[in-house]
Amino acid sequence: MAWVNAIIQGVLTGGLYALFACGLSLMFGVMKVVNLAHGDLAVVAGYIAIGVITVTHVPVLWSFLIVVPVMALLGYVLQRTVIQSALDRSVLITLLVTFGLSVVIENGLLQFFTANSRAIGTGLPLVTGSFTLGSQIQIGYLLVVVFAVAVVVLLGLQYFLSASRYGRLIRAVADDREAAQLAGADYRHVFGIAAALAFGTVALAGIAYGMYSQLQPTTGTDTILLFAFAAVVIGGLGSLWGTLLGGVVLGVAQQIGAQINISDEVLAGYIVFLAVLVLRPQGLIYRRTQS
Amino acid sequence: MAARAGGRHHERADDAVTRPENGARPESGTPLLEVSGLVVHHGQLRALDGITLRVFPGEVYAIIGANGAGKSTLLRTIAGLHHPTKGSVRLDGQDVTRLRPERRARQGVVLVPEGRRLFGSLSVEENLQVGDSYARPGPWTIERVYQTFDWMRERRSQLTAQLSGGEQQTVAIGRALVANPRVLLLDELSLGLAPVVVQRIYGMLPQILATGLTVLLVEQDVSQALRVASHIHCLLEGRTTLESRPADVTAAQVEAAYFGLADAAPASRPGGESEP
Amino acid sequence: MTDPLLELDHVTKRFGRVVIAEDLSLTVGPAEVVGIVGPNGAGKTSLFGLISGDLAPGGGEIRFAGRAVTRLDAAARSRLGVGRTYQVPRPFGDMTVFENLLVAAQQGGGLRRRASYAAAVGALDRTGMSGQANVPAERLGLLQRKRLELARALATQPTLLLLDEVAGGLTDPEVAQLVGIVRDVNAEGIAVIWIEHVVRALTPVVSRLICLAGGRFVGDGPPAAVLAEPAVREVFLGTEVTAALAGGSLEAPPAVNGEGAVDGGPGGREAS
Q: Which residues of chain C have pLDDT under 50?
């Protein structure tokens, strides 16, 4: 029974991982940018939420409404300025720039918030409570809600990409940037929108993580970035639902590993990651039509 | 296309077309597209060495020449994808030389690039919709494209990678048309297509011109260019070797201009520029 | 009749649906200078790839100096004497001209120290680059880079030299200089096959011109004769102009396929 519990935990955690991962996947799929600061942005969002709540005393759930749009806007601006000028130079420079961004963010957070962990306390029964299935399976409400939110966000993203004008433009620019220019699209603006989406979703994920677990300045690279990366690679580059699949696989692997030996939780996840890289490097869901 | 007496070559639609016939190029009046003294480098290589040309409304202006002559470079520079080292590009009198390609497209200079370059993960209709995203007002809509190419309507949800080369080329042209360009730039339509298919596609030109567009095209096949053009311009190693109406030039002059083996005939545009 | 230096025997190569070489057979003698022309995408550079070993054929045999080389890789063929330039010169930027040539002589020519120095110096002399021997390659201008590319190929001690579009972008005097170098190289007994768009660079120096179109040889013979062949003219100039050159005129081109044939849809064989 403990195994069933573990698997369910793992699946639900996969939702959180998918939320982390979809922004990373989007930025890579559209502009070929591996944003090494991706995880740190989640942490930043969490810290901003903490700050907003502390200062304004708004209900916790309102922090989403404030922080997510702010982060999205930050994403657009950062993309149009720093990241675009790095892209204009070379892919390698872009990697270095995002790495530098990551270092700056982490040290900035250390400076302002110290290395102590913070959490976003809510006291809401939603967050701390759980329900039981049968007699032995216990599932926290928060994780279920996060999973549901992840599915909703992915559905929303998919709808946006497939049915809206800007979603089409994002896909077109990802396929062939020059041809999109010839059709009148300013690809820098389109990149900005993709970045805004990426930053917005990762902010959402970061605040959720702050409620679920604890935030430290280094959590971004220690935990979030690597998990997001693993989820994207396992699921398959360029596939949104792949990130959910990848997240779930990662989560389940981790929980099974924890069952075997509590300290092997994270290791188990990375073993699966490695296995996918060796056996099927293109990921579980591989879209061949991506140019 | 030089009109011949008695030919079925007056490729007009039913409506009267204000297309200059038999070289009735206005001596005054603003050309719709004007390129002056264009010098373009690829790194250190000089791809174009002082190109000047004028395209007037309603014309089919064809650029011919051997590979490496600079034809595609010229078209891409006009579209804004390359920056010239020297020289200018003017659209209807306005200097667009510094405009980014997407701005130029929105102003009405739309390129159908070599190799089609459709969006592979998008369907036929989505490709057209992207072309429509920043369209100018005008007669061309997605609906009109479906009316013009009736096979497209049934296949509109298909991914473009599943279409044949000729079908892809038509979709690429449709994608450019829905933007309602003033000047339609066609880069090597015939590449990789069977002659029958090429003929069919060029056969659409009259319909396109009938809606008030002007066409500037690059064509590898010299004879094909001569069939459809109202004016031809031959490039060799980045320089102009011939510029004329098809009616005013002999096959031998075309060959000489193409290979550069003998002295080509000087440009035969009345009152126009002599060779740079 | 001397033994041929290079033989292609029914060589075929495809990339997916695209046919690059279709049952090609070719013989080149030890001191010939052969020019190759043809439209882009016709497979000219790929032909060089098949000869130099950068590409493996799908079918057929390739023999060099009587020896079957079909299964040898590019490095091995280079040591046997197949030297090749590449369309886009990519020298080792941080190394000097001389050092670049040393690498070529040692790796491509298989020469040891003193012999490799001699080979490098020889290549410098033939291409007139002795004055730039100590210049870092990245500082060279376009013409010099092309010369370096040629020198690099010469430093590998070839008996067959493959030149890939070396005349592009050069002015008339520069083209004349290049032609002079090729003549001198050939006079030393090195066979040359030269792909070129700039046809007028070829005509003074090649004894034989081949037209490659759609993966097939369309013409093969003395340059003037080949360029006058209808099949070859048709490749470049199309049907009407070819017909007109043969004695018609450019009047009354045939009607395009009627009004209203606008579907551009399925039908017709895809050109390879």
A: 252-272
> Which chain B residues are Cβ-neighbours of A179 within 8 angstroms?
113, 117-119
Q: Count how many pairs of residues, chain A against chain B, have C-beta atoms within 8 Å.
A: 87
Interface of C with B in 209-238 (CB under 8 A): 227, 233, 236-238
Is residue C35 classed as helix, strand or coil in its secondary structure? strand
Q: Can you list the positions of beta strands (E) in B16-74? A: 33-42, 45-55, 60-65
Record: contact C265-B151, CB cut-off 8 A: yes
Of residues A172, A186, A187, nearest to B130 (C-beta): A172
Predicted confidence at residue B270, as pLDDT, reads 42
Q: Which chains contact A through at least 3 pairs of Cβ atoms less than 8 Å apart?
A: B
Enumerate the domain spans of chain A.
2-279
Work out the number of other CB atoms within 10 angstroms of the CB of residue B98: 11
Domain extent at residue B111: 33-259
CA distance A166 to chain B (A): 9
Interface test with C, best of B85, B186, B237, B245 (most C CBs within 10 A): B237
Average pLDDT over residues A48-64: 87
Which chains form contacts with chain B, at 3 or more CB pairs under 8 Å? A, C
Q: Do A29 and A238 touch, CB atoms closer than 8 A?
A: yes
pLDDT in tens, B7-20: 334 433 333 333 34
Tell me the range of A52-66, B72-86, C109-123, C170-184 where mean pLDDT is highest: B72-86
Q: Which CATH class is domain A2-279?
A: mainly alpha
Neighbours of chain C (3+ CB pairs under 8 A): B
* pLDDT tens figures, C89-125: 889 999 999 999 999 999 988 889 899 999 999 999 9
C264 contacts B255? CB cut-off 8 A: no
CATH code (residue B233)? 3.40.50.300
Tell which residue, C265, A12, A244, C236, has the closest CA to residue B68: C236
Whether the predicted pLDDT of B272 surpasses 50: no
What's the pLDDT at B16?
33
What domain count does chain B have? Answer: 1
* The CATH fold of domain C1-81+159-222: Rossmann fold (3.40.50)
In a domain, B6, yes or no: no
Specify the pLDDT at position A93.
94
Asked, for residue B271, whether it belongs to a domain, the answer is no
Compare all CA atoms of chain C with the CA of B196 and give the residue at the minimum distance.
C268
Report yes or no: B218 at the A interface, CB cutoff 8 Å. Answer: no
Q: Is C39 on the interface with B (CB under 8 A)?
A: yes
pTM above 0.90, yes or no: no
Q: Which residues of A108-132 are buried (b: 16+ CB within 10 A; e: fewer)?
A: ebeeebeeeebebebeeeebeeeee
What are the tens digits of pLDDT across the range B90-131?
999 999 999 999 999 999 999 999 988 999 999 999 999 999
Give residue C43's pLDDT.
79
Q: Is residue B1 part of a domain?
A: no
Chains A and C touch (3+ CB pairs under 8 A): no
Residue C122, amino acid:
G
Do B110 and A182 lie within an 8 Å CB cutoff? Answer: yes
Q: Which residue has the tokens 């296995």?
A: A275
Candidates B196, B206, B255, B234; CA nearest to B60 is B206
Beta-carbon separation of B130 and A183 below 8 A: yes
The amino acid that residue A22 corresponds to is C
Task: Tell me the average pLDDT across A39-51.
Answer: 93
C-alpha R_g of chain C: 21
Structure tokens at B39: 């010098």
Chain segment A179-236, per-residue pLDDT in tens? 999 999 999 999 999 999 999 999 999 999 988 888 999 988 888 999 999 999 999 8
Using CB atoms, which residue from C141, C256, C269 is nearest to B199?
A: C256
- Cβ within 8 Å of residue B133, ≥6 positions away: A165, A168, A169, A183, A184, A185
